TrEMBL record:
It comes from the Bacteria. This is Methyltransferase domain-containing protein. The keyword Methyltransferase applies. The lineage of its organism: Bacteria, Pseudomonadati, Pseudomonadota, Alphaproteobacteria, Rhodobacterales. It holds the Pfam family Methyltr_RsmB-F. The active site is at C350 (nucleophile). It comes from Tritonibacter aquimaris. Keywords: Methyltransferase, RNA-binding, S-adenosyl-L-methionine, Transferase.
Length: 419
């Protein structure tokens, strides 16, 4: 049994954090804000916060009719959640009572419970019909502009259409692992289930036969094609999806990340799957050594993961992207110094912005005379040839394979060093 009010109260708190404090949901979860909830209530809270944020444009359009601009954020967020639930078919009685209860307990805004009751009753009567007529939610202007410039209006509308629904559950199978998962096998080798459900209850989870990894995110390690016995450095490794692929391929893997907290999750993942890697806490820019192959999954805007993280467009405004682009260029240059002559490097980011993908590789190719793009493993990935870019990398977008459920946005390229 879930505690509906508890989950709703926690979801409103999360909305306050994202829309008031510009905190990402992942930061809230890492800080333990949902720790006291049962697994069921935690899942319900996350779903409510995610879906309200995914549909915020529609929700606010409906609320605008009934609400003054200066309504306090906490009250507005309780109403936002209420509108989402009512328009998604939630039972009016339960939704309205919960939201009135949540606002009535607020130490400053309790007096506004009557407003909440009145607005939500009107929304219960008219909201679901109005909702049907509203347009598909758009990305915010600061992000939509650059994406339209890069990919065109139709592509961006296609990306927004995929963002409108929750992502499917994609799974990477350990070689020889349990495959009785009732899932579709994608041409790229990932398994896909339409609904996530309780991941840890699926067959083979406890035995460590597989891990959750978006189909696009599974491709950089396959592009690198690590061989048994090779020394491979995974430079920004946590929480370890790619580390596990490299280790499962039989490589001798070093997994480095600057975040001790995120590395804890990487260690747990390795333990569950029985895979091995040398785990290093450190700054990628200071690491030294020589490796047969390096995988650099650089920190980025994460704009390719919005359907999984619908909070991102609301918590961010693009002001930190310039610093990330500079950091990626520095990391790529340093990572290149760690590759042995004749060795290779995969550079990748889960971004939709060419500045964090294609442009980085074009700049690096100009800077390093001993760097070439290697396309030899692209044909083995099961991707459409249209997705291969001019410089020989691979561009993936959420609207690709939309009829199958789409994929995360990603860029990746395999770079070979002269012997
Ligand atoms: C895109 S995530 C990596 C995801 C990971 N490769 C996977 O497949 O599970 C980027 C990572 O870069 C790490 N990071 C950021 N700055 C770093 C730095 N200076 N040195 C090392 N790691 C860094 C972050 O902590 C984060 O875990």
């Amino acid at each position: 049994m879930t505690d509906a009010i508890q989950a709703r109260r926690s979801a409103v708190y999360l909305l306050d954090q994202v829309l008031g404090q510009q905190r990402l949901l992942a930061e809230c979860y890492a800080a333990g804000v949902l720790e006291r909830l049962t697994p069921e209530d935690r899942a319900r809270t996350q779903r409510l916060a995610n879906e309200t944020l995914r549909n915020l444009e529609r929700v606010d359009k409906i609320l605008a009719k009934y609400l003054k601009k200066n309504t306090p954020l906490h009250v507005r967020n309780a109403l936002r959640l209420g509108v989402y639930e009512l328009c998604a078919g939630g039972a009016a009685h339960g939704v309205v009572n919960s939201m009135v209860n949540i606002v009535s307990r607020h130490k400053h805004h309790g007096a506004l419970k009557g407003l909440v009751n009145a607005v939500l009753r009107k929304v219960a009567a008219n909201g679901p019909d109005e909702w049907q007529k509203l347009r598909q939610p758009r990305l915010p202007k600061w992000l939509r502009g650059p994406l339209v410039e890069a990919w065109g209006r139709d592509a961006v509308a296609g990306i927004e259409a995929v963002h409108a629904a929750p992502a499917p559950l994609d799974i990477t199978l350990k070689p020889g692992g349990e495959s009785d998962l009732d899932a579709e096998l994608l041409p790229t080798g990932s398994l896909r289930r339409a609904e996530a459900g309780q991941v840890s209850a699926l067959p083979g989870y406890d035995a460590g036969d597989w891990w959750v990894q978006d189909a696009a995110a599974a491709l950089p390690a396959r592009l690198l094609s690590a061989q048994p016995g090779e020394t491979v450095l995974d430079l920004c490794a946590a929480p370890g999806g790619k580390t596990m692929q490299l280790a499962a391929a039989g490589a001798t893997v070093s997994a480095l990340d600057v975040s001790e907290t995120r590395l804890t999750r990487l260690r747990e993942n390795l333990e569950r799957t029985g895979l091995k890697a040398d785990v290093i806490v450190g700054d990628a820019l200071e690491h030294q050594g020589q490796y047969d192959a390096v995988l650099l999954d650089a920190p980025c805007s994460a704009t390719g993961t919005i359907r999984r993280h619908p909070d991102l467009p609301h918590a961010k405004d693009g002001s930190d992207f310039g610093a990330l682009i500079n950091l990626q260029a520095q990391m790529l240059a340093h990572a290149w110094s760690l590759v042995k002559p004749g060795g290779r490097l995969v550079f990748c980011t889960c971004s939709l912005l060419p500045d964090e993908g294609e442009c980085q590789v074009e700049d690096a190719l100009e800077m390093f005379a001993d760097m070439q793009v290697d396309q030899s493993t692209l044909a083995d990935l099961g991707v459409d040839s249209d997705w291969i870019t001019e410089e020989g990398g691979l561009r993936l977008r959420p609207d690709y394979w939309a009829e199958r459920g789409g994929m995360d946005g990603f860029y990746m390229a395999l770079l070979r060093k002269s012997a």
